[in-house]
Amino acid sequence: MDYRIEDDIKSEIIEENICKDNKINIEVVYLDGYIYRGDPHSNLILSTVPRFYGTQESAKQYFNVYIKTYRTKRKLKLLYVGTSDENKRMLLNMVKCMIKNNNNDDKDILESMYIVMQVIYGIIIDKFSNIDTLGLSDSEITKRLDKSCKTLNYMYNESKEYIEMLLDMIEYYKPRDDIKPSRVGIRYLDKLLMEMLMKIFTKYGYDGIYMNNGKMTETHLCYHVNNEYYNKKITNTLTCIPSEMTIWNPQRDLDIVEMKKNVNGKLIKQDIEYLKRMENYKKKLRRS
Hints:
alpha+beta
């Protein structure tokens, strides 16, 4: 199904003092409303680490046992990732400016983020072979990603396999001029990229990411990774994601307002107030 986030959500270009004293243009979305998430469980506790959300239709495409509805507590400012060349150039130029003017505190994270976001979010102009790896060798990229994982306290041992996967993907697809860049959902790399983006952009008042990948075809990277690479390397399946939102701190920024359970194809509304009371009761029992 070709679904999208609500049509009334519009991006706008603003000026930000993100890169030292240089004002740069950046595209943002302001979110104040309802979003959804599919889950395999009925847990109502909101996470303090990044989580992915979308429309009700998109929630059904994933863990469709429970469909949860959330309301923003305030207007959220989201970094916009789209498919236009203008948007991609703004994002690439912004991070490259940050790298150039950095005092080395976050340089490994910025360089790692620059490479990972090109692959995972498809932020490459025209075709995948135009990816910019900053002139770094595979060993230099690995070194920076290793350092970034340690700095972020990010699942270092688990991430090694996925760092190798990222480099394999770059090596395998870069020589091919027939591949168009696109969003590619790979769980550990998604999470690592979110940790990087959150560390860099939270200080500028951003609360997450809005990604609109538009309509994809079989020429896009996601389909090739799914058919040619991903299933050969890992047993999980890969979903090509048209659009999504990532909220970096759901517990701070969202309230859960409704939950429905999928019972034989029918969505049955659950009593979340009762479930909250039961969760609190269980907590008290564990403490006693």
